[in-house]
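Lab channel / #folding
Pinned by the channel admin:
"Please post every new chain as: sequence first, then the structure tokens as a reply. Keep commentary short and put observations after the output so the thread stays searchable."

First post following the new format, from NK:
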Amino acid sequence: MKSKKLEIDKVASFLRDGMTIMYGGFMGNGTPPRLMQAILDSGVKDLTVIGDDAAFSDASKGPEGIGLLVRNKRVKKMITGHIGLNKEAQRQMLSGEMEIELCPIGSIAERIRAGGSGLGGVLTPTGVGTSVEDVPQDLTINGQKYTKKPVFTINGRDFLYETPLKADLAVLEAVQADKMGNLVYYTSMRNHNPLMALAAETVIVEAHQIVETGCIDPDHVMTPGVLVDYIVYPH
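Reply from TO:
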């Protein structure tokens, strides 16, 4: 079996300007810190990033997570559900330095699930009649352009159409991995990580602990190794 081990200094070979990256976790927990630093060190820029929230802009207040890339102005667009704890993300949004597409967190999860499952999108009642209906750029469906997300009435109830989300790369953090890439998450690491592993062309995982294949109870595996391309081992 080909080894999935990836040295941290080789991460740059998977990066390019303008790519789309999904990052796992919640408020920085479950967002892989060494991979975030490797992305920063690579010099890559103009990224579109997709994740639960913007984490923190100040490491003294909590895990920076994606905030490290935001603070260093590597992000062109962020699709997320919450930026309230990241003052730099707020500042860049208001100044026009970074495009923010705010989407309810549950809707983001379903959009990622749709992307990973090959679906054409999701219908949700969340956001109907609010600014969530707005789209940052024109949406084109079957050649028709929309400046508002389509709303469908089904059995008397309105549902908002949300597009699927996919990425070039997903960077995830796991508490444990075996050498085949089977993963176990801890608490909020599990937030969107299993969905993102399905929705990205390449999946790189930073694991706290590596064990031999077969050591993880199959019932405890939260992401199967077939979805994981590379593993960054602990220091």
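NK: Residues 19 and 150 are 27 Å apart (CA to CA).
TO: also worth noting, Helices lie at 33-42, 67-71, 87-95, 105-117, 193-199.
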